[in-house]
């Protein structure tokens, strides 16, 4: 019997097919529930005859999934009891609740944990015990990132770095970003009003040009990829895209090449759009919460 990672019960004209990950005891339970079922090498699954087969198989698969989740949660609880995680960022309830300061690393790690989900009401990540092994494997990275993001730690780093050249350069870059301008080659402008990708600011929407030429010193300081003396660059105005605009944007089939990157803008790929859409959704939820207070 071949293995399958998905539970499925597609309906056919005279019955339904059942596919599920191979396990000897699961197969025995399936055979007891469906004694007329027959294995099909051609279909790579079990075939159950009957007009109501799809409904009966789906009900059985749902019960199996729930039973498996309960069993895996029980194993996870035993693993936690034997080798528990102790951290101020973790609370034990019906599942595991995780609260940390905002950190991109923490988000990436938790999103990679199976069945982990964000609870907006509790303002915490919920991780079922069946995912404990994966959470435990990722926990050192999560805890380091959370500690690094603590307000006191961020303030300490800021105090230590505020007189450094790196801090001053970052402050200048931040000031440049707030100007919402971007140099574009006058002979190769992007479509205005549509989301495009940039090296410095991610995905943006250009709204028009100012008509002023960009000076070489400003380009070399903030936009080093655009230093071709033979090209006239003009300042363009930009804004962040809305979630609706990002959803409607058609992704590029392949990543941008050196020519597109050197001109400063390109059509975003699906991976670039996914990151931007995730950020836009978070901002939209934050605005809704603020508006509700």
Task: Give the secondary structure arrangement, pairings included.
Layout: E1 11-12, E2 15-18, H1 24-33, E3 38-40, E4 45-49, H2 53-82, E5 90-92, E6 96-98, H3 104-111, E7 117-119, E8 124-127, H4 132-148, H5 151-161, H6 165-178, E9 181-185, E10 195-198, E11 202-213, H7 216-222, E12 233-239, H8 243-248, H9 258-263, E13 265-266, H10 270-292
Antiparallel strand pairs: 1-2, 2-4, 3-4, 5-6, 6-8, 7-8, 9-12, 10-11, 10-13, 11-12
Describe this structure in words.
The protein is an alpha+beta fold. The chain folds into 3 domains: 11-81; 90-148, no CATH class; 178-292, no CATH class. It has 10 helices and 13 strands.
Index terms:
single chain, 293 residues, alpha+beta, 3 domains, five-stranded antiparallel sheet, 13 strands, extended, disordered N terminus
Short structural description:
The chain is an alpha+beta fold and 293 residues long.
Low-confidence stretches: 1-6
Mean pLDDT: 86
Count of folded domains: 3
The SS-based structural class is alpha+beta
Please give the largest β-sheet: 5 strands, antiparallel
Treating each run of at least 4 consecutive H or I residues as one helix, how many helices?
A: 10
Rg calculated over all Cα atoms: 27 Å
Which percent range fits the helix content? 40-55%
Shape: extended
Number of DSSP strand runs: 13
**Strand ordering within the main sheet:** 9-12-11-10-13
Secondary-structure element order, as H and E?
EEHEEHEEHEEHHHEEEHEHHEH
How much strand?
Answer: 15-25%
Distance from first to last alpha carbon: 57 Å
């Amino acid at each position: 019997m071949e293995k399958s990672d998905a539970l499925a019960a597609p309906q056919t004209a005279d019955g339904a097919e059942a596919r599920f990950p191979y396990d000897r005891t699961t197969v025995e339970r399936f055979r007891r529930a469906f004694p007329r079922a027959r294995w099909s090498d051609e279909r790579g699954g079990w075939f159950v005859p009957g007009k109501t087969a799809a409904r009966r198989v789906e009900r059985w698969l749902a019960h199996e999934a729930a039973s498996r989740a309960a069993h895996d949660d029980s194993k996870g609880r035993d693993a936690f009891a034997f080798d528990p995680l102790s951290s101020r960022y973790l609370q034990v309830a019906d599942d595991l609740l995780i609260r940390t300061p905002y950190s991109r690393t923490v988000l990436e790690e938790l999103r990679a944990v199976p069945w982990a989900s964000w609870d907006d009401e509790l303002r915490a990540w919920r991780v079922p015990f069946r995912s404990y092994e994966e959470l435990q494997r990722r926990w050192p990275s999560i805890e380091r990132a959370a500690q690094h993001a603590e307000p006191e730690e961020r303030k300490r780093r800021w105090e230590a770095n505020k007189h450094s050249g790196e801090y001053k350069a970052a402050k200048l870059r931040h000031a440049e970003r707030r100007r919402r301008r971007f140099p574009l080659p006058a002979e190769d402008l992007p479509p205005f009003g549509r989301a495009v990708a940039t090296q410095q600011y991610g995905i943006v929407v250009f709204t028009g040009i100012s008509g002023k030429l960009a000076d070489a010193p400003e380009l070399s300081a903030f936009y080093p990829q655009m230093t071709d003396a033979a090209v006239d660059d003009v300042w363009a105005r930009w804004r962040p895209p809305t979630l609706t605009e990002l959803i409607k944007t058609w992704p590029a089939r392949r990543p941008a090449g050196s020519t597109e990157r050197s001109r400063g803008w390109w059509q975003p790929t699906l991976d670039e759009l996914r990151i931007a859409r995730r950020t836009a959704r978070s901002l939209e939820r934050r605005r809704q919460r603020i508006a509700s207070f």
